[in-house]
Inverse folding.
C-alpha cells in the first residue's frame, strides 16, 4: 500500500493548522506563534480580503469599566455580572454560561490586542445606548488590516486561495487535514498536531444573504464528518431591511446600518401601509430585529410584498429637501470620519438620493450563524487537538446574538491560540492512515474525474429553493419535514456531481463549488433536523406552529451528530454557572422583550 | 418590467490548453441595475460554468475583482453595466485562467 504522501501532490508539516485567516484565524496564529509554536494558516481567499470580518460594521464589546482602562469614556453603571447577564438574556438562556464568562473576561484583552496592533476606532458606545453593543465601533476593514499587518510583521506562513476539505483523525486524535489549493489545483496533505477551525458561517446555503461567497460551512461540515457534534444549528439569524433589489446592491446591509443612524425610516408593504403599526404599534420599525423580520415575512406571505418578494424601505414622506439634508449629513460624516468604504462613501448617498422619488425593496437576509461546532469555554471540541473559534463554533450565544460577533472572533481566537500550544508541546505528530487520505482524495477528485452527471449549479439552485422557502425566518413542521426529505434526496445527488470544464485543475470554480455544496448541504440538513426537534419559538428561531417560548420543555441545546454517515439529533442540558434558568411558557414577543408586539397577521385575526 | 439584452464579450484563456487568448460573446438579460459581476455570475450560472473570474464580497470590500471593462480598470462588483461590454483581465500577462490573474 502506498504511503499517505503518495496520494497527494504536496505535503506540509506544521505544529498547528489554522483554517481561516480573518477575525478569529489570524488571532489564533499570532497568539500561538507568540507562545512558541509554528502555525500554518490556510485560507480560502487572501488575508484581510476574505470572509465576513472585512464587511463587519464593526462593533467590539468591552464592559464599561474595562473601557475606561483602555482610555475610552466607559460607563460606571456597568459590571462583568451585568454584561454576563445581558448576553444570556439576549440568548434566551440557551447560552453555555462558562463560555459567556470567558467571553466577558477575554473581551477587554482581545480588544486591547487590536488597539495595540493599530486598529482605529470611531467612537465608544455605552451599555445603555439602544441597539448598539457596549463597546467600540470601528470598521471591518480597519480590523482585518490591523490583523494582517501584525500577521505579516511576524512573517507567519500562509497558503492563500486554498480550501481545507477534510480533517484527519487517528487513534481519536487530530493528525492533520487535506486541502485543495485553488491556484495550483494541487491537493495538499497537512500533517499537524492540532487544528483550529475558524471558517465562519454557511450563509451561502441561503439564497438571500448578507455574506461573502466563501462562507459555505466548511468547518462545521468537516467537523461533523469526523463525528464532532454541532450545537444549536436551528438558530440562524436573519437581518431585516437588507437591500433585495436591484442586483448590483443586493445583499448590502447598509440600509439596516442606516436605520441606526437615522430612525425616521418607514417600512411599507405593497399597498403602501406602514405595516409595523399592526405588529408593534409602540416601537414600530424600531422593534427588535426578530419582530421586524417576522412582520416583513408575514406581509410577503399575505401577498402584500414588493415585486421581488420584499417590503419597501421608505423616506419619501420626509420630502426632497429633508432628504438632501440627510444626504449631505452622511457625506459630511463619512468625510470627517475618514471613511473610505464604498457602502458608506458612495452607495449610501446614492440610495438617499434615490429615496427622494422611490422606495427601496428590502428583505430578510441570512446574516449570522448562532449555532455551530460544539466547543467548551476553551474552544476545545471533543476530539483532542481539534478546536473551533469564531462564528463556526456554537454555544456562546444560545438562541440569539445581540453582542459583538467581532469580539467572539477575537476572544475565541485568543483562547484557541493560548490553549493549543500547551497541547502541541505535550504530543507527538499522530500517524496518518493512508486509507483516510486515499478516501478523501477520491472524494475531492470524483467530480473532476466524472464525464457526466449532476450539474452543480442545478443542485445549488434546488437547495436554495429548499432553504429559502422552508428554513427561513418563519418555519413550521410541515415545511421542515419537506426540507428534511428534500435535503436528504439532494445529499444522495452529491456523489453524482461533475465538473464540465476540464480545461485545468487550476482555479476551477465548478470543482470548488462541488466541494462547497456538499458542505452547505450538511449544514442545512443539520439545521433542518435541529429545527424539527425544537418545537417552540425562541430568539432567532420562530415556528408558526409552536409560537410560545417554552422554558418548561425546551431549555436545552439541540445536538446533531453524524455516526456512520447517519445524522442523529438529540438534546443536551445547558451548561450553567451562576444564572439560574427560568420556568414557564410565554409568548415569543414577551420572551424577546417586546411585550408591545403581536405577531398575529391581520387576515388571521379576522379568521380569513 | 423592462428587460434588455446586452452582449458581454469575455476574454478567455487557459494557458494549459489554449495556444492563444480568444473572446466569447454571451447574451445577458439586464434585469434591474446589474454590475459586471452580476453579468459574469449570470453567464457562469446559466451559460458557461467554466468561466473563471474572482468573486468574494461583491460589495467593494475585498477589491480583488479588478477587471478591465471597455478599456477602463474597474471593480467588477461596483461597476454598473448599461449596454454591451468587453471584459478583459486586469493584467493579461498575469492570467492564470480567463479573467483571474496572479497577485490580485
Amino acid at each position: 500500500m502506498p504511503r499517505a504522501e503518495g496520494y497527494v501532490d504536496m505535503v506540509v508539516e506544521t505544529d498547528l493548522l489554522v483554517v481561516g485567516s480573518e477575525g478569529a484565524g489570524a488571532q489564533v496564529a499570532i497568539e500561538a506563534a507568540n507562545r512558541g509554536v509554528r502555525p500554518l494558516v490556510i485560507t480560502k481567499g487572501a488575508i484581510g480580503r476574505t470572509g465576513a470580518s472585512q464587511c463587519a460594521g464593526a462593533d467590539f464589546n468591552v464592559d464599561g469599566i474595562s473601557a475606561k482602562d483602555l482610555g475610552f469614556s466607559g460607563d460606571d453603571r456597568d459590571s462583568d455580572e451585568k454584561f454576563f447577564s445581558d448576553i444570556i438574556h439576549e440568548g434566551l438562556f440557551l447560552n453555555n454560561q462558562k463560555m459567556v464568562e470567558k467571553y466577558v473576561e477575554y473581551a477587554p484583552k482581545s480588544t486591547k490586542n487590536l488597539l495595540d496592533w493599530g486598529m482605529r476606532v470611531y467612537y465608544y458606545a455605552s451599555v445603555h445606548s439602544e441597539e448598539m453593543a457596549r463597546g467600540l465601533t470601528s470598521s471591518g476593514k480597519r480590523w482585518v488590516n490591523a490583523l494582517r499587518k501584525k500577521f505579516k510583521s511576524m512573517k507567519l506562513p500562509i497558503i492563500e486561495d486554498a480550501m481545507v476539505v477534510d480533517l484527519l483523525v487517528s487513534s481519536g486524535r487530530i493528525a492533520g487535514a487535506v486541502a485543495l489549493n485553488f491556484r495550483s489545483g494541487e491537493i495538499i496533505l497537512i500533517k499537524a498536531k492540532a487544528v483550529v477551525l475558524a471558517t465562519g458561517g454557511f450563509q451561502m446555503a441561503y439564497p438571500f444573504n448578507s455574506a461573502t461567497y466563501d462562507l459555505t460551512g466548511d468547518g462545521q461540515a468537516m467537523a461533523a464528518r469526523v463525528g464532532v457534534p454541532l450545537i444549536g444549528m436551528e438558530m440562524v439569524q436573519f437581518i431585516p431591511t437588507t437591500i433585495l433589489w436591484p442586483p448590483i446592491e443586493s445583499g448590502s446591509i447598509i440600509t439596516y446600518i442606516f436605520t441606526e443612524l437615522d430612525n425616521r425610516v418607514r417600512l411599507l408593504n405593497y399597498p403602501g401601509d406602514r405595516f409595523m403599526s399592526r405588529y408593534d404599534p409602540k416601537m414600530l420599525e424600531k422593534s427588535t430585529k426578530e419582530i421586524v423580520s417576522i412582520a416583513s415575512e408575514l406581509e410577503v406571505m399575505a401577498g402584500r410584498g414588493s415585486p421581488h418578494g420584499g417590503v419597501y424601505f421608505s423616506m419619501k414622506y420626509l420630502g426632497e429637501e429633508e432628504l438632501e439634508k440627510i444626504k449631505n449629513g452622511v457625506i459630511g460624516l463619512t468625510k470627517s470620519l475618514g471613511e473610505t468604504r464604498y457602502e458608506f462613501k458612495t452607495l449610501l448617498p446614492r440610495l438617499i438620493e434615490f429615496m427622494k422619488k422611490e422606495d427601496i425593496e428590502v428583505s430578510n437576509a441570512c446574516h449570522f450563524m448562532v449555532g455551530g461546532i460544539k466547543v467548551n469555554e476553551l474552544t476545545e471540541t471533543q476530539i483532542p487537538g481539534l478546536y473551533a473559534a469564531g462564528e463556526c463554533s456554537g454555544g456562546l450565544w444560545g438562541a440569539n446574538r445581540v453582542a459583538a460577533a467581532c469580539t467572539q472572533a477575537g476572544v475565541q481566537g485568543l483562547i484557541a491560540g493560548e490553549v493549543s500550544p500547551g497541547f502541541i508541546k505535550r504530543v507527538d505528530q499522530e500517524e496518518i492512515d493512508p486509507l483516510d487520505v486515499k478516501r478523501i482524495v477520491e472524494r475531492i477528485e470524483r467530480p473532476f474525474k466524472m464525464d457526466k452527471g449532476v450539474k452543480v449549479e442545478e443542485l445549488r439552485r434546488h437547495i436554495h429553493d429548499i432553504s429559502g422557502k422552508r428554513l427561513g425566518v418563519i418555519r413550521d413542521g410541515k415545511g421542515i419535514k419537506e426540507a428534511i426529505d428534500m435535503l436528504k434526496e439532494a445529499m444522495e445527488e452529491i456523489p453524482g456531481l461533475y465538473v464540465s470544464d476540464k480545461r485545468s485543475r487550476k482555479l476551477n470554480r465548478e470543482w470548488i463549488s462541488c466541494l462547497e455544496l456538499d458542505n452547505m448541504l450538511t449544514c442545512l440538513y443539520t439545521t433542518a433536523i435541529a429545527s424539527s426537534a425544537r418545537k417552540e419559538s425562541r430568539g432567532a428561531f420562530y415556528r408558526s406552529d409552536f409560537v410560545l417560548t417554552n422554558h418548561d420543555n425546551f431549555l436545552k441545546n439541540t445536538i446533531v451528530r453524524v455516526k456512520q454517515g447517519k445524522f442523529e439529533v438529540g438534546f443536551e442540558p445547558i451548561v450553567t454557572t451562576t444564572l439560574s434558568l427560568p420556568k414557564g411558557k410565554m409568548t415569543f414577543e414577551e420572551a424577546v422583550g417586546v411585550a408591545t408586539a403581536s405577531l398575529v397577521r391581520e387576515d388571521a385575526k379576522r379568521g380569513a | 418590467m423592462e428587460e434588455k439584452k446586452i452582449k458581454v464579450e469575455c476574454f478567455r484563456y487557459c494557458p494549459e490548453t489554449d495556444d492563444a487568448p480568444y473572446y466569447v460573446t454571451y447574451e445577458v438579460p439586464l434585469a434591474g441595475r446589474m454590475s459586471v459581476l452580476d453579468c459574469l455570475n449570470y453567464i457562469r450560472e446559466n451559460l458557461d460554468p467554466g468561466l473563471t473570474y474572482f468573486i468574494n464580497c461583491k460589495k467593494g470590500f475585498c477589491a480583488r475583482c479588478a477587471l478591465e471593462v471597455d478599456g477602463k480598470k474597474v471593480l467588477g462588483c461596483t461597476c454598473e453595466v448599461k449596454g454591451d461590454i468587453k471584459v478583459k483581465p486586469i493584467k493579461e500577462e498575469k492570467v492564470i485562467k480567463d479573467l483571474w490573474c496572479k497577485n490580485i
Summary: The mean pLDDT of chain A is 96. Chain A has 19 helices and 23 strands. Chain A touches chain B through 37 residues (CB under 8 Å).
